[in-house]
Amino acid sequence: MTLPEPGASPSGEAAHFRALESLYRSAPINRLFRSELTIPEAGHSVISFDADETQFHAAGAVHGTVYFKMLDDAAFYAANSLVSDRFLLTTAFNVLFTRPITPGRLRAEGRWINGKRRVYVAEASLIDADGEEVGRGTGTFMRSQFPLSSLPGYGD
Asked: Closest Cα to residue 40, out of 70, 7, 81, 3?
């Protein structure tokens, strides 16, 4: 097995994963939701983030928009890790809220389930700092008309 030179740019699948991570960082919405995406392998993604009081609803727990955004993003990037030419679009997403989120470090873990042509199905779990699942989501995603290479941030 030949290892790449130290400091060399990734190629092939790894380059696609790094480009998707760059695309995620460049999305304006992530200025509001400070988080970090990692794609360790095809069909799998992890988003790490901190929840705090700025994301609370009136009853003192994290608002459902945080659940949706992180679950949708994790499932989306797990699916888009399998597609190197087009940006996928979420066509449906279901969220299950299993317990309230309190302030702290969380991670959303996305996994591709099915589909490799036009429609992809992926799921995600939202895990708190104690390793407990606080939410779960399943989505369907389809190929868009947007080439990934045309999107600002992809590969920057």
From this structure: 81
